[in-house]
Amino acid sequence: MKWKARILSTILVALLFVSPVSAEEPKLWKLQKVLASKKYVDLTHAFHPDIPHWKGFPVESVKDIYTYERGGFWAQEFTHVGQWGTHVDPPAHFHKGLRTVDELSLKEMILPLVVVDVHEKVAQNPDYVLSLADVKEWETRNGEIPQGAFVAMRTDWSKRWPDAAAMANKDEHGIAHYPGWSVESLRFLLQERRVVAIGHEPTDTDPGMSTSRNDYQAESYVLGTNHYQIELLTNLDGVPEKGALIICTFPKPLKGSGFPARAFAVVP
């Protein structure tokens, strides 16, 4: 009987070496193939020194510190504020003690994307403020906004990029005229629907007429709830009202008050 046991053991060992490992593909790899088959929409402007930016910020500077001819490789030095180009604003941008860029969690970076489209209203009135009624109209068409979503306001204001004067749209008195969010709509989204983040195409959360008075109550409200936002989005006209995913990525500066972001949508 011992020799039979030894033979069986030898056969089992041999089978371990010759039998193929399960060919079933890992589930996440399958998911990646599904995502790769979809349409991708870049929601990010390329940034450079002359782009539109908030009125109080200095312009970016870029210089070559090594070149192919001087050093054998190319390296650039970029000097700009954190809120430059399409960028992330963490809660600490307005509120001391709340989360900085490095403290935003990875699970907050891949989210269902909800696009509230008010671009036709903005075309009629550049001072348009997205209202709670606009959000309710979205839900009438599409169902309740899912918890954990990223809600973007589509205004088509990004079509004015990179013309800084057109983005600011100031009148003869120096008052800016561009669209923004109402605090009422943001309160509903963040408290009732429990969305993770919001985003928009203009330079600010608040409309231009408010920021011209240094009134940033809408942005202060969003960041004060310990949520983040992405400003200066683009190409929202290429994304459906519902059904897409948004991926928001950005570097991880320790205790960072903001940083340029790369955001894109995966469209079904």
TrEMBL record:
Pfam families cross-referenced by the UniProt entry: Cyclase
Source organism, top-level taxon: Bacteria
PANTHER family assigned to the protein according to its UniProt record, in alphabetical order: CYCLASE-LIKE PROTEIN 2
Organism in which the protein naturally occurs: Candidatus Abyssobacteria bacterium SURF_17
Keyword Signal recorded: yes
Key word Signal present: yes
Keywords: Signal
Any GO MF annotation of the entry: arylformamidase activity
Protein name: Cyclase family protein
InterPro entries, per the entry: KFase/CYL, KFase_sf
Signal peptide (UniProt feature, chain positions): 1-23
BP terms from Gene Ontology: L-tryptophan catabolic process to kynurenine
